[in-house]
Amino acid sequence: SLLKQQSAKLKPSKIQGGPRKKLMKLLIKVGEGCIASRAAFMLWKDNEIPTTPSVELIMQVDPDIPSGHVKVYNEEVKPAVELAFVKDEAGAVMIMSGGESSESLQEVDYSSKQAILADWLLSIESLGAKEMFEKLNTHLVYRTYILNTHKVSAADVILWARAKKDDKLAKYLLTPIESSDVFRFAKRWYKAVDSMKILQQAVGITRSSQVNSQWDDVMKLVKSQGSFDVNLPGLEYGKVVTRFPPEPSGYLHIGHAKAALLNDFFARYYGGKLVLRFDDTNPMKEKLEFEQNIIQDLVRLGIKPDVCEYASDYFDRLLIYARQFILDGLAYVDMTPVELLREQRTRKEANEYRAQSVERNLELWENEMVKATELGQKCVLRAKIDITNNNGALRDPIMYRFCIDPPHHRTGSKYKMYPSYDFSCPIIDSLEGVTHALRSAEYSDREDQYYWFADAAKVRKPVMWDFARLNFMYTVMSKRKLTWFVEQKYVEGWNDPRFPTVQGIRRRGLTIQALRAFILSQGASKNSTFMEWDKIWAVNKRVIDPIAPRFTGIDANKHVKATVQINGNPVLLEKVEVPRHKKNPDVGLKFVIRSPTIILEQEDADSVDIGEIVTMMDWGNMKVASKNADGLVLEFLPENTDYKKTKKFTWLPWLDKQEQEKVEGGYESAHHLTKLTLVKYGHLVTKAKIEEDDDIEKIRNMDSKIETPAFGDFNLKGVNKDETIQLERRGFFICDDVHDDPVHGKALVLIEIPDGKGRT
After folding, report:
1. 479, 481, 662, 687: which is the annotated catalytic residue?
2. What is the reported pLDDT for 265?
């Protein structure tokens, strides 16, 4: 009826063929979880229900609308007028009932259908799932659909959506129907409705609403959208399973973040699952510390895996597969010393062990390697693929090797030898049900090897997709090289602001919102390029600029005093309230102390001439009355409000103890300055593109950290750790640490956030 009322109000317009009603647009905004309204809209869009020619419906997902609710707007009026704010089920009724044409209303007993629908909605409102479907089952004994028609109605959509939101109930209703099944009629109905492809699409759109809202960030912050149209086989909604398999041997860096976000994106977009699997197959490098921090970083990135597993969960099963490889003649035991073995693989040379019989390989495997004898510990198990292949990954890669010490951080000393990632990954992927394995293009030469192991193990093969690796100029991405910096103590740790780790760039002030938007804007392309950091920092600035409160900071070693007077007399000491952000009043207010003596930057003082008019920010225009070695004398011009062509200077009050005591709150609680340490970081290395064989020691940047002591206004005493601010005319900073100074009270360490203009 809402649609009819609004349509009737529209004035007819002259169009070819005679007068007709102007097309009316209704915008329907849905919150998360609105399966019923989405399904109704999809049915309307696909012409599955009769529609009024003069009405057009538009639907958007709006994360700001409460979950399970719908808002309807008339788009013909600017600004759009809100017509209704209803629950998901009422939205579905509106779309499917109010949109019927006058012809269809004459053919059916509309009031009867509405009465039955109303009766259903009222009668099931307070029922639990079991009671609701008991009633439904009885009702459907002689009916195909709830309203006894041959087409799905709003009643079917609403009850189907209720079941869909209850995973346990939905799974039960899809189980095979037995003749003795109490709910067989409800099951038959549910399967018929649930099998409609268009309703499955509605579920997909609803469950990916979080993904859709991410695209809003991408377009708003990055201004471009990467493509995810990769045409992979098997991308069937509800059946996609991706995985993120980090090795717990370091912290996640931005490259790992891309892999995690893309796998998560595909899983969510197709209504599937994301598996987090720790590749804990090398005790030499792994630590519980790394595992815990990886989990924390995924939480920071907004990634919630559906399953968390470990490669070590499959160690026993992998041993069985390895034994079968030997029996099938696809693996052999090799006792060649490590260095010689590497040389042989490089020269594409087979050795004597490759020709060993299956019996001999099985004997060495079971009696020596599995039992970890002295002889067994000298052995490795290798896959028998093609030692002469130009692809080094296919030259008989290692399947098992020994690591006696240290013990495994999960399994202890139970195992002495461990499977390689190359061998274990394709098998575990298949056993876990992974359908699509997305990984960085640096592993593209291992794709043939991946499929060989899957074929040899006789397991289902997931679909592989290699996306472009994130490469940044002047950036160390190798985990081995990053570990070297940590071990040499050239950095503070894995969260050093110069590191490309998630914790490092976060500590330097990069927001998770900007990081997610930037990575998703790259899409799933395979084209690798080296990028400057400027772009991602520019995206970050768009996030923080509208919300970061503004403060003042002056160099503690390079400043000049100035005396402020009016009509030849010192100005009065006063404390005034000004906005913390000149363009965003929601950020709040701050106090500014205006005093007869102020300090300003040495560079600013040097740039002015006597007689010049300058603007002191948060105060007003002043004329330079005199300038000498002792500083400046400024004449305040309260009537002069022309700020267009003046130089803009920041400043701070400089009070003696007597003046400090006059400030409201007293000396101890409102000391007029805050002690600051401003930290600016540069690149860790001096070479733009780092090669694998580069000697990091020779290209290490010896001056990658600069500290500047500074004074800040007293409002900075309220800033806390990890808070982002702007020091006006200096840039954006993030509070890295807070110290209790016995003289000045709170002292802050502020890290400069690059602004995307080359100031890295």
Report:
1. 479
2. 85
Amino acid identity, position 3: L
C-alpha distances in Å from residue 270, one per residue of 187, 241, 439, 465 = 25, 9, 18, 16
- Helix, strand, or coil (residue 336): coil
Beta bridge partners of 685: 700
Q: Find the catalytic residue in 32, 89, 247, 286.
A: 247
Question: What is the distance between the alpha carbons of residues 416 and 424, in angstroms, rounded to a whole number?
Answer: 16
- What angle separates helix 184-194 from helix 197-207, to the nearest 10 degrees? 80
Instruction: For residue 333, list its beta bridge partners.
Output: 381
Cis ω for the linkage preceding 19 (within 30 of 0): no
Q: What angle do CA 275, 394, 309 make, to 5 degrees?
A: 15
Question: Which H/E stretch holds residue 735?
Answer: strand 731-741
Give CA torsion, residues 480, 484, 487, 492, to 10 deg. Answer: -100
What are the structure tokens assigned to 49, written together? 């229900």
User: Residue 23 — very low, low, confident or very high, per pLDDT cuts 50/70/90?
Assistant: low
d(CA 351, CA 193): 63
User: What average pLDDT does range 470-491 have in this prediction?
Assistant: 92
Q: Is the pLDDT assigned to residue 285 strictly greater than 80?
A: yes
β-strand pairing of 631-636 with 597-601:
unpaired
CA 455 to centroid of chain Cα atoms: 35
Q: Which residue has the tokens 């040495």?
A: 602
| DSSP structure class, residue 278 | E
Catalytic residue status for 125: no
Query: Tokens in use for 577?
Result: 């309230």
Backbone angles phi, psi at 38, to 5 degrees: -65, -45
- Strand-pairing partners, residue 82, are 73
- pLDDT band for 19, please (50, 70, 90 cuts): very low
2 near 81, Cβ under 8 Å? no
In 488-627, which residue ranges form alpha helices assigned H by DSSP? 502-507, 512-521, 534-544, 602-606
Which comes out higher in pLDDT, residue 206 or 287?
287
* Pairwise CA distance, residues 648 & 552, whole Å: 13
> Quick one: pLDDT band at residue 94, thresholds 50, 70, 90?
confident
323 is an active site residue: no
**C-alpha closest to that of 576 among 562, 587, 590, 566:** 590
Query: Residue 91: which residues within 8 A CB-CB, separation 6 or more?
Result: 28, 30, 34, 36, 37, 40, 70, 72
Instruction: Please list the residues that pair with 562 across neighbouring strands.
Output: 598, 632
- φ/ψ bin of 364: left (φ > 0), alpha (ψ from -120 to 50), beta (otherwise): alpha
Looking at per-residue pLDDT, the higher value among 562 and 121 belongs to: 562
0.90 exceeded by the pTM? Answer: no
Q: Say how far apart CA 519 and CA 542 lie, in whole Å.
A: 15
Strands 24-30 and 12-15: unpaired
pLDDT > 90: what percent of the chain? 53
> Of the ranges 137-151, 218-232, 291-305, which one carries the lowest mean pLDDT score?
218-232
Which parts of 240-306 are beta strand (E)? 241-244, 273-278
Residue 498 is encoded by which pair of tokens?
């110069």
Residue 360 catalytic?
no
Active-site residue among 29, 345, 416, 469?
Answer: 469
